Backbone:
């Protein structure tokens, strides 16, 4: 009998259905000579420092660096029950082999192997490696199971990632927390360089000095030609004035046919970026929605860094495109002859191919899919249509005119064939999206111009403009920056560049918000005051995007057997040891940088911006003053204990709520946060508050 271990119960259920293991047991499914069970994410984690030595429970400089000689793992407290089920199944005499069916990637490999090894299982192990949860993909995967040993290097890479994050996180966090007076200063192998990029951008914005410049215009024959930027307004007015009622000579005309290639298919990062730009979804939300669609068999595996399909998927792609036209995902009558070959490239497919819909889209009732998931599914479908459509072709005209010895320039654009942008425009109009991107960028078709012709100047003007500071990062641009970090210093043939992986970047951003180092303001990601301070005190070795990008590339090389795990870990251990030796004391003034000695009690983390919620004179409030109301619920003042429970995501019993029929008691369960506004004394007051679900206490009384 084969024991199949998936990563989540929902995935295990799909696999069990295909294999015929339909008999439900406690923690697993059984039938047809298969047992199918599951992990619940990471069942096993690295032990905390105090597990190695009780003295390490206390944070001191003298105890650093903490570098275990032999790594210890422990079962997570909240998943012990499922681990016990898996342990018993692995040692069940009926089981003669085990199939690793966790997510086909680095973290999936780690989840399974740690469970397999901790349980002391020595039964033969095979690997299921699939990119879709469709029945046909699962059947094909089981008919082509690979020996588990083929993925040993991937497991080594995953272990190195886990151990490196532990070493940098534990030692860096304890070192700088102890040095700077006790506020938890969290340091992470990937999150700290990400924060450094945000702080660097914020510093450039804060130090930016706006400067005015002027542009002289001449207008005539439907043209608006402009001068170069001019610093002095009087000079611009003089240039414009000299051309009043004059003649402009066309001195140069350049006409070109230009084109914009169709976009590539989605990998996870580009999907997250578009979902943020178009719908305002966070990277974490996009991953969750796409993962849910994957488990519903509607899209292929989401945690991919490839934007191509393998060469053998031409037929699949054509069938899916036809299915898109036959489903709710596309309701326009368009003649379409897709060029599928342009999205096929096996050499550029690593662990998994690009994210595309599956054939299930014509079998399932898409009206039952939540709106947020439908947006992601529609994005993936539209991208497949765009990627296989024709080029967007336009004619570009650039001309130079001379008037009174001054050169003026004008440019125009005429679309010749809209190509793939037809699909993009239909998608945007269906969701009423105006993202500020225009095909013409404000340029329109110019009248026919030839070199040597003259244009009568009908009017002139001077316009004032200002230099613009760099823009704040959004999650879209931050994900792009994380993906490209360090790449300018790497060779083109380096496979993986940047900070983190497509699968981990969303969590890194969420950690920065949760720890209070970054706040969200609409779509913008802005470092908090503590985030800015933290980066000013940390050394380059822990905040360098280049160094972290190098590590990520090394981890990829370990997974291919090109770099040894020992070599990588030796470098991490040396870095941590040097860090502790180099940074051993700070001045008393520096110790007060992070509010040492501030006795305000912290109740928890703000659900809106990630800042500290503290006890104030008039109730709990967020230190970042982001506008969240956490001290009252439905008009009732909350106790300190209730606020703490609320911030921890727990339900609270609130007595004395006012209703139409009198006062009542209810359990309030926090679901999310919502904005509110009202007018008081003619002034609009805005803020945010918890949105609750209610449960009512069971009334004690006689039955009957």
Residues:
């Amino acid at each position: 009998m084969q024991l199949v271990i998936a990563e989540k119960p929902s995935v295990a259920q799909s696999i069990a259905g295909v294999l015929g293991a339909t008999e439900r047991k406690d923690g697993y499914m059984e039938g047809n000579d298969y047992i199918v069970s599951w992990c619940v994410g990471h069942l096993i984690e690295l032990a905390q420092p105090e597990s190695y030595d009780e003295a390490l429970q206390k944070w001191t400089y003298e105890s650093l660096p903490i570098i275990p000689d032999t790594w210890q793992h422990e079962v997570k407290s909240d998943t012990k029950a499922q681990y016990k089920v898996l342990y018993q199944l692995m040692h069940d005499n009926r089981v003669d082999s085990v199939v690793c069916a966790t997510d086909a990637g680095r973290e999936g490999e780690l989840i399974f192997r740690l469970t397999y090894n901790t349980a002391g299982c020595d039964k033969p192990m095979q690997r299921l490696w699939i990119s879709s949860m469709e029945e046909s993909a699962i059947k094909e995967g089981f008919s082509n199971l690979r020996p588990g040993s083929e993925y040993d290097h991937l497991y080594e890479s995953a272990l190195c990632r886990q151990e490196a994050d532990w070493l940098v996180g534990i030692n860096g966090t304890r070192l700088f927390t102890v040095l700077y007076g006790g506020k938890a200063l969290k340091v992470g192998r990937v999150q700290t360089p990400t924060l450094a990029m945000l702080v660097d951008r914020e510093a450039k914005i804060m130090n930016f000095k706006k400067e005015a410049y002027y542009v002289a215009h001449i207008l005539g024959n439907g043209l608006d030609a402009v001068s170069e930027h001019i610093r002095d307004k009087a000079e611009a007015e003089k240039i414009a004035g000299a051309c009043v009622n004059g003649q402009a000579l066309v001195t140069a005309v350049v006409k070109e046919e230009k084109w914009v290639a169709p976009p590539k298919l989605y990998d996870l990062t580009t999907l997250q970026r578009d979902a943020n730009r178009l719908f305002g979804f966070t990277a974490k939300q996009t991953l969750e929605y796409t993962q849910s669609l994957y488990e519903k068999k509607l899209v292929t595996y989401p945690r991919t860094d490839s934007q191509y399909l393998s060469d053998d998927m031409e037929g699949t792609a054509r069938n899916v495109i036809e299915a898109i036209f036959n489903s709710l995902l596309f309701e326009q009558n368009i003649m379409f002859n897709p060029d599928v070959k342009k999205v096929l490239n096996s050499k550029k497919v690593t662990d998994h191919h690009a994210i595309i819909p599956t054939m299930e889209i014509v079998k399932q009732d898409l009206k039952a899919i939540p709106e947020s998931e439908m947006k992601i599914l529609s994005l993936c479908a539209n991208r497949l249509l765009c990627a296989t459509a024709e080029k967007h072709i336009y004619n570009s005209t650039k001309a130079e005119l001379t008037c009174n010895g001054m050169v003026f320039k004008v440019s125009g654009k005429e679309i010749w064939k809209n190509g793939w942008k037809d699909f993009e425009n239909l998608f945007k109009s269906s969701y009423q999206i105006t993202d500020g991107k225009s095909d013409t960028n404000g340029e329109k078709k110019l009248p026919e111009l030839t070199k040597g012709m003259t244009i009568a100047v009908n009017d002139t003007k001077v316009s004032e403009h200002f230099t613009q500071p760099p823009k704040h990062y959004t999650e879209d641009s931050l994900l792009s920056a994380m993906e490209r970090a360090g790449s300018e210093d790497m060779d083109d043939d380096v496979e993986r560049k940047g900070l983190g992986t497509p699968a981990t970047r969303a969590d890194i951003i969420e950690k920065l918000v949760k720890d209070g180092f970054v706040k969200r303001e609409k779509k913008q990601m802005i470092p908090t005051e503590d985030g800015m301070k933290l980066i000013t005190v940390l050394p380059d070795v822990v905040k360098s995007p280049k160094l972290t990008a190098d590590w990520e590339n090394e981890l990829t090389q370990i997974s291919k057997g090109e770099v040894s795990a020992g070599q990588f870990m030796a470098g991490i251990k040396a870095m941590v040891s040097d860090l502790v030796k180099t940074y051993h004391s700070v001045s008393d003034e520096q110790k007060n940088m992070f509010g040492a000695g501030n006795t305000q009690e912290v109740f928890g983390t703000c659900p809106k911006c990630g800042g500290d919620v503290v006890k104030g004179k008039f109730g709990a409030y967020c230190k970042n003053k982001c506008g969240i109301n956490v001290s009252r619920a439905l008009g009732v003042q909350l106790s300190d204990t209730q606020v703490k429970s609320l911030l921890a995501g727990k339900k609270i019993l609130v007595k004395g709520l006012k209703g139409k029929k009198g006062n009542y008691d209810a359990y309030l369960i926090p679901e999310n946060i919502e904005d509110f506004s009202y007018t008081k004394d003619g002034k609009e007051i805005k803020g945010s508050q918890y949105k609750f679900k209610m449960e009512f206490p069971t009334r004690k009384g006689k039955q009957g």
Q: What stands out?
A: Confidence is low (pLDDT under 50) at residues 490-496. The first helix runs from residue 9 to 19. The chain has five domains: 2-144, 161-206+474-589, 212-261+392-466, 268-387, 602-695. The two ends are 53 Å apart (CA to CA).
